[in-house]
User: What shape does this take?
Amino acid sequence: MQFLNMLAASVGSTVSEATSSGSDGDMGFWQSIGNRFYRTFIEENRWKMFLDGLSKTVQITIFAALLGVALGFLVAIIRSTHDLTLHKKKCKSFGDVLLKFFNIICNIYITIIRGTPVVIQLLIMYNIIFASSRNAVMIAILSFGINSGAYVAEIVRSGIMSIDKGQFEASRSIGFDYKSTMIHVILPQALKNILPALGNEFIVLVKETSVAGYVAIMDLTKVGNTVINRTYDAFTPLISVAIFYLIVVLILSFILKRIERRLRNSDH
Amino acid sequence: MTTDNKVLIKVEDLCKSFGDLKVLKGVNAEIKKGDVMVVIGASGSGKSTFLRCLNLLEEPTSGTITFEGVDITAPSVNINKHRQKMGMVFQQFNLFPHKTVLKNMTLGPRKLLKQSKKEAEENAMKLLERVGLADKANAYPNQLSGGQKQRVAIVRALAMNPDVMLFDEPTSALDPEMVGEVLEVMKQLAREGMTMVVVTHEMGFAREVGTDIVFVDEGVIVEQGSPKDFFENPKNPRLKDFLSKVL
Assistant: This one.
C-alpha cells in the first residue's frame, strides 16, 4: 500500500523532482524502488520503448523460428533421404547425383553455421551481404532463421533416423512411395519424438535474438541498455528485461507442453 | 484349393548379396494362384531374404521375379503399383503407432486405391469383424496384445485387396499363447483360397495348410514338395537333420 501511494506521488510529481533526487540514501527502500521504477518506465514514456523492444524480440523470434523450421526440415529430409537410400551406394540416376550434390551443400551449410558465432553471422549479413539494405529486422530474421535451421535440421534428422526401419518397410509394402511414406508415416512419428528438443531450440532462439542490438535493432536487450545509459540505473532495466525474457519463455514452454500432451495421446 | 493353375509369381535364378556375403545363390520357384507356399529353414539360411525379395524390399543382386506376367526387377517398373497387390506381414507387426487400428487399415486404401472414407472404413470394419477385433477399431496399436497386433497387421494388408500375401515369420515374436489366434486367421485365409508365401517355424501349420513346402539351406532351395512327401519322406540329409531337431 505504501508502495502504491509512493508510486502515485512519484507519477504526480514533476520530472525535476525525480531527477534531482540524487540522494537515494535519504529515502526509504520502497521509495528508492519506486523512484527507480519511475525513471525506468514512466519518465519520457520509456515503457513504450520496452514494449517496442519486446515486440521486436518476439517478432524476430517468431519469423526466425518459422524460417528455421522450414529450412531445418528441408535440410533434414535431404540428408536423411541421402543416408537412407544412397549411403555407401553408387549413384544410379540423375536424381541420385542431384541428391548427392544437395547433401554436400547441406553438410557445408550445417558445418559453417554451427561452426561460427551467431553474432558474426549477423554482422556479416548486415555489413557485407546486405550492406545496401538498412532493413535490420529483416536481416536479423534471416540471420537467426538460417542459424536456427542448421540446429533444427540435425534435430529433425535425428528424429527421422530414430524411427524403426520396419515402419518404412510396412509403408512401402502397402505400396506407398518414399515421399508418401515420409509424409504419412515417418514425419508424424518423428515430430512427436523431437518436440522436446525442438522446443528447446525455440527457447534458445528467443534468447539468442538478444544480440540483435549489434545491428542497431532496438530489441528488448538493447532497450534495457539504452535506458541504463539515460538513467544511470543498471539494476531496474536489467532485472526487468530478464523478467520479460522469462515471461516470453514461460509462455512458449506452456504452449509446447500443450502440444506435446496432444501428440502423446497414442501411447497408453 | 482352386483349380486355376495360373502362375502368379515366378522366380528365376534369384541371387542376393549383402556386400561380400552371398545370401541367396540362385533360387528358382513358382507360386501358382491359390498356393500356400511354406518356406522353412535354419536361421541365416536366406528364407526371409527370399521372401523380402518377392516384393523388392530387398533388391535382388541378379535374377528375375515375374509377378502377374511382369518382370518387377526391371528398372522401368513402378514397384509401388505391384506392391499394392502383394500384402506383407512382418515378424515385428510394424503397425503405425501414431494411428488408430482403423486409420492403420484405411491409410492405404484411401490414399492409393482412392476409396472414399466411408468405403474404406466399412471395408476395414468387415475385415476387423472377421478377425474378431471390431471393438478395437479406435484403439492405438500400443493398447493391443501381440496377437491382436498381428491380426490387425494381417487385415491391414488384406484391406488393399492383394493377390498374394507374404508372411515373414508372423508368429516368431509372439508369446506362445498368442500364436494360435494368428495361425487360425492364416488358416482361414488359406481356406478361402488366398495365395500365400509363409516363412515360418510352425511345422504344424506347414503340414496342415501348406500346398508346397520349400526347404532353404545356404541360399538355395534344397528340397521342395507336398507336405506329405516333405515331412514323411525327406531326402536331403540337411533337411532330415533339420526336421529331427524341430519336429
Notes: The interface with chain A takes residues 55, 57, 80-81, 83-84, 86-88, 90, 92, 94-99, 107-108, 111-112, 140, 142-143, 153, 156-157, 160, 166 of chain B (CB under 8 Å). Chain B has a mean pLDDT of 93. The first helix of chain B runs from residue 47 to 54.
